[in-house]
Design a protein that fits this description.
alpha/beta; Rossmann fold; five-stranded parallel beta sheet; 5 helices
Length: 121
């Protein structure tokens, strides 16, 4: 049975790049969201067992999404994929429950390594 995967980024190009980087053998059902509000709604609908989350987005950023996931007790395994590589940002997302932080532009081998480390593939 495929794993519900949500790719969240305000950039369509970035979402496509992330999707192309997903290991072909990983059985996932991919949904997409372009902002934090859409991400939370998809999560509430069960479309985000795993979430790839950008930090810098209009309307509701990735940090707010992580906070709301905790507040609403929504269980999603979050991997942040962001160009914001400041150590403080990385520490903050990990403190909010993110499993890992991958810098943009995404590297398919790095993504595969993170998925293996987390036991997702």
């Amino acid at each position: 049975m495929p794993i519900p995967l949500l790719v969240v980024d305000d950039s369509t190009i970035s979402r496509k790049m992330v999707i192309k980087s997903i290991p072909p053998a990983w059985d996932v059902d991919i949904s997409q969201a372009s902002n934090g509000f859409e991400a939370l709604e998809a999560c509430r609908q069960g479309k985000a067992h795993v979430m790839f989350l950008d930090l810098t987005m209009p309307e509701m950023d990735g940090i707010e999404v992580l906070k709301k996931l905790k507040e609403e007790h929504l269980n999603s395994l979050v991997i942040v994929i962001s160009a914001d590589i400041q150590p403080k940002s990385q520490e903050l997302v990990e403190s909010l429950g993110a499993l890992a932080f991958i810098k943009k532009p995404i590297n398919s081998k790095e993504l595969e390594n993170v998925l293996q480390t987390q036991g997702l593939i």
